[in-house]
Amino acid sequence: MSERHLQPLLHDLVGVVHAPTSALGDTAGQIRPSGVQGVFHADARVLSRAELRVDDREPEAVTRGAAGPHGARFVTLARWLGDPGADPTVRIDRTRQAGPSGLTEELRVSSTAAVPVRATVSVDLGCDLAPIELVKSGGSGSPLEAKAGEPGRVEWAAEGLVVTVTGEAATVDVSGDRAAAPRLSWPVELTPGGSVTLRWRLAVTDPKAVVAAPPAGPDWSVPEVRADDRRLVRLLDRSLADLRGLRLTDPAHPEDVFLGAGVPWFLTLFGRDSLWAARMMLPLGTGLAAGTLRVLARRQGTRLDPATGEAPGKILHELRRHEFTLPAHELRLPPAYYGTVDATMLWVNLLHDAWRWGLPADQVEPLLPHLETALRWLGEHADADGDGFVEYVDTTGRGLANQGWKDSGDAVRFRDGRLAQPPIVLAEVQGYAYQAAVNGADLLDAFHRPDADRWREHADQLARRFRAAFWVDGRYGPQPALALDREKRPVDSLTSNIGHLLGTGLLSGDESAQVAALLSTEALAGGFGLRTMSTDDAGFSPLSYHCGSIWAHDTAIVLGGLARAGFTEAALRLADGLLGAAEAFDYRLPELYGGDDRALLGRPVEYPAACRPQAWSAAAAVALLQAGVGLYPDVPGGQVEVRPLAGPELGALAAGGLRIAGAPVTVDVDRAGHPTVTGLPADLTTTTIPRIPAPRPAGHPHPARRR
């Protein structure tokens, strides 16, 4: 039987990040030479081992916690030292801090013993410079031999990348077998009640990295939030700290900041992920959106290239320093890969939404040629077979077989479990396309550029085609199909994808109500959030990556659509699930988690390979805050719509320091759901929208499907 190449598990590791550097170790603080443990810089593992010992014994772990936005603290004990008896008297506090080009550790050894304590503290190191894709596929590199430099210093170098570890006042041993496992060591003497702090640091020089750390701190606001449900406050605090650590820039344009997708696999520029995260962060300012738009605009496609998926006007999927290869999956992605069906429309929609939040005209106008080119891609390249829908197919056999956000190979399944064959027409992508056409038209009109009417007509035709082709009869009444397959047959499983249609304009009011009702069924909403596939479908598995698990960003996007459309009961159920998950995960929401029923364990089941922290999972906290206060500005139109989710069920909620047109705005929603908005620019007026009744699933076929 052939050996399986398994992706390493992540769920029980502790991570710190200050992009482009991240570190993953175990709950005791050890970084062991196994799995995905290590310190990574961009796409390379620059340290594969950092194991602490006291007198050649491992201290025993007690607890750990966060140490600021980029750090973690671990408490361990050396119970064989100090006084005899049940109480431990020698303790080691290990504090790890990630920096943009390295990492530091402090080891505070303290004693409450009545007698002096003598010991040797050591840290065993290792470096394999393994590329991230090798680690992801379950492999590792061979340990490199280190060279001793100045006192207390050890160094590795290969292909222009230089890794240096320095231990303050430490002795370095690189002799014999220790060349591949160098040791830093410190003799320690503690008087009764005494302590000593030891330090070592890692520095990385990486001139070939395609991403870099921003030169300054984040320019988004940090809101002051008061909430009856304190889970929201804790989630927001932890999420904003994580997002601070995920900030990146293009080395050639350090002024433009975007969010790396997640630790450890995706700490680079990802079109879809970076765009969605920036869109959810708009209530805190437009700076992140502007940087993300410009970074991706500079890499917008200019030619047809099947090998990379590039096409004129298309927005990039992901950026690496070299080819990203996973042999077990027959995947070989070029360094700049364009295999995404939705990022181009999401770019257009982010530009529009940032403009509505107050992105200044002098920042919008330089991006309008890129907008027009993106719309041309939508009209000329997105529909390869001319049927009027946006579709995808990987023609190389080496790229992503599925190119929507659910991009695993088995993500698009019929109700009976069969895989759909490409080309694939995804439901939510048609919603993005409709919205991009309308939003693009609004921008063209506002800036006196031609073709707005063409794109509105394009959107109208797409809506008519969608209504005729996608609606099918399901267990709970009519439902949009997940997709159309190669033969244009509706892929009739019930999935979270349909929730992304809310708010795009593609659905009528009655259709939106039916979708809201479907999203409220136990089959989709019975876990800690929104399941990616319903429990009624044959392909459902609670730990399937895209066919039954729950993704925080997916839940937040759909929750936001429900809330803005006025489907309060459905939105509240998802909000409670997301907050319950946040509480279970110490308020650091992972990329995804299991779609089991809430009653199974009373907490969500970890998806063992989920990234954490992850940009759009962390940004989901801001999306939840926005839905809670219900703030929806249209700065060019002089209007702000207010439709709070907070109120009788969620409780009172107030947020100060939100940003509209650069002005700090406060929204205060009382327990009855009545909002008060202060700080708005004088030329904006508010409109408060009342709640509408909760939807119920329809019991009859959709009108367009009647025969």
Automatic annotation (TrEMBL):
<dbReference type="InterPro" id="IPR012341">
    <property type="entry name" value="6hp_glycosidase-like_sf"/>
</dbReference>
<feature type="domain" description="Putative glycogen debranching enzyme N-terminal">
    <location>
        <begin position="17"/>
        <end position="201"/>
    </location>
</feature>
<dbReference type="InterPro" id="IPR032856">
    <property type="entry name" value="GDE_N_bis"/>
</dbReference>
<protein>
    <submittedName>
        <fullName>Glycogen debranching enzyme (Alpha-1,6-glucosidase)</fullName>
    </submittedName>
</protein>
<dbReference type="InterPro" id="IPR054491">
    <property type="entry name" value="MGH1-like_GH"/>
</dbReference>
<feature type="domain" description="Mannosylglycerate hydrolase MGH1-like glycoside hydrolase">
    <location>
        <begin position="341"/>
        <end position="583"/>
    </location>
</feature>
<dbReference type="GO" id="GO:0005975">
    <property type="term" value="P:carbohydrate metabolic process"/>
</dbReference>
<dbReference type="InterPro" id="IPR008928">
    <property type="entry name" value="6-hairpin_glycosidase_sf"/>
</dbReference>
<feature type="region of interest" description="Disordered">
    <location>
        <begin position="678"/>
        <end position="707"/>
    </location>
</feature>
<dbReference type="Pfam" id="PF14742">
    <property type="entry name" value="GDE_N_bis"/>
</dbReference>
<dbReference type="Pfam" id="PF22422">
    <property type="entry name" value="MGH1-like_GH"/>
</dbReference>
